[in-house]
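Appendix C reproduces, verbatim, an entry submitted by the partner laboratory led by Prof. M.T., so that reviewers can inspect both the input and the predicted structure.
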Amino acid sequence: MNEQSDTIVIGVLAVILIIWLFYGLRKWLNRPLPVSLSGIQLNSDIQHSPAVDLLEAEGYEVIGGKMKIPLAFEVNESVFYSRLFVDYVAERDEIRYLVKTSRRRQPVDFTGPAIRDRFLYYLLLYPGCEGLLYVDTEESSVNVIRLMDYEEDVYDGDDLD
């Protein structure tokens, strides 16, 4: 009887392993590929501005001008259109960044919710880029905004009220 129970346990473990491998492989095959900025057509018309000067002073090379990213949404079989604008694409040490410049009428409050509401869609749109550079021309500063990996900083949300 002992041999038979060992065979049953090994069989159950083998079935669990096969199911786990099947679902893991299926999840891996269905995962979307990250969009890389290297494959995107850049606008070669770069308009000179104080933001370009700030980026170059910080060691970034501006490699692309203003881009319009068209978006389409379907809601209850109705289609809605919108677009996002990226001011520049910059590169430093062969790492690419999207660039947004400050707007006088839209100041940025650097808090978690404000950064999420203002910049998250840019960071999710091109996961192949390192992050987003927010150029504040009035403060003469360049802020690097990066979406952290889960392994980098585990946030449990305990400070939410």
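The mean pLDDT is 80. Additional entries are available on request from the coordinating office.
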